[in-house]
Design a protein that fits this description.
CATH superfamily of the domain at 3-83 and 156-253: P-loop containing nucleotide triphosphate hydrolases
Bound molecules: adenosine-5'-triphosphate, magnesium ion
Oligomer: single chain
CATH architecture of the domain at 3-83 and 156-253: 3-Layer(aba) Sandwich
Largest sheet: 6 strands, mixed
Structural class: alpha/beta
Helix content: 25-40%
Shape: globular
Strand order of the largest sheet: 5-6-7-3-8-9
Number of strands: 11
Strand content: 25-35%
């Protein structure tokens, strides 16, 4: 399902946060939204989900999500927020099962299939051993993977992931990125992630969108967007950009 945003303006607390943002994420592709702190990346994901008042046009598979009932929207798009507030005392398994809510009838209970899907997702994210653990007894990276597990349990065609790897060790970063990539290739998922690790973004995404000051200042392939000049201008960082073994850019900080 294609995600299309045209001329999006969002103001928060009376201050413009996104200005004239347009982007198109073709069905089955992966776009990473990058940019400095405060650029508007999380705001963009929340706007796409239909959670914010905005001007402009946002469609997912041609439909306007803000006009959709939450249940229907949750079967179409899953969202993993950057800093979710997690219910205290709930177990990892029950939280993951919440991802099945859009499929469970009102006043009904989850089916054996819903439980099997939650269990399978936990397994794929290395969380089976933690299934009965309360959420407040997890490490930061474990918590982050559980939030992703809930989103994956929704089995939607579109995934919006806000900084899904920030708290993860390098092994779990690779596991999560490979899992998302496999789902994209096998089930044709459309993926939009924000991500601060620019090399990681460039390794997995088909396209990068660089947001700065609420505007799209560059978009294209990783090699087109991740240039030394753009990183200097928008992040005030001096970096070396080298082509990796697969031609995708690798960034390293330049020491004075
Ligand atoms: N509710 C709010 N009211 C007013 N301003 C807000 C509100 N929420 C966010 N902002 C501001 O909007 C801007 C964009 O915030 P956003 O969270 O989208 O940035 P971001 O690019 O995701 O940053 P980060 O890399 O730190 O996650 C920031 O300047 C932030 O302070
Ligand atoms: Mg953010």
């Amino acid at each position: 399902m294609t995600v299309a945003v045209r001329g999006l303006d969002v103001a928060l607390g009376g201050r413009p946060v996104l200005r004239g943002v347009s982007l198109k994420v073709p069905a089955g592709s992966w776009t990473a939204v990058i940019g400095p702190n405060g650029a508007g990346k999380s705001t963009l994901l929340r706007a796409v989900l239909g959670l914010l008042p905005c001007a402009g046009e946002i469609t997912v598979a041609g439909a306007d999500l803000s006009a959709m009932k939450p249940r229907r929207r949750a079967r179409l798009v899953a969202y993993a927020p950057q800093s979710p507030s997690l219910p205290v005392g709930m177990t990892v398994f029950d939280y993951t099962l919440l991802g099945r809510s859009p499929y469970i009838p009102h006043l009904g209970r989850e089916s054996a299939r819903d439980r099997a899907i939650a269990g399978e997702v936990l397994d794929r994210l290395d969380l089976t051993g933690l299934a009965e653990r309360p959420l407040d007894h997890l490490s930061g990276g474990e918590r982050q993977r559980v939030v992703l597990a809930r989103a994956l349990a929704q089995q939607t065609s579109v995934l919006l992931l806000d900084e899904p790897t920030t708290a993860l060790d390098i092994g779990h970063q690779q596991q999560v990125m490979e899992l998302i990539d496999r789902l994209r290739l096998s089930d044709g998922l459309t993926v939009v992630t924000t991500i601060h690790d620019l090399t990681l973004a460039g390794q997995y995404a088909d396209a990068l969108v660089l947001l700065s000051g609420g505007r799209v200042v560059a978009s294209g392939t990783p090699a087109e967007v991740l240039t030394r000049a753009a990183i200097q201008e928008h992040f005030q960082a001096r970096v070396h950009v080298l082509p990796g073994p697969d031609g995708r850019p690798l960034l390293s900080l330049e020491r004075p």
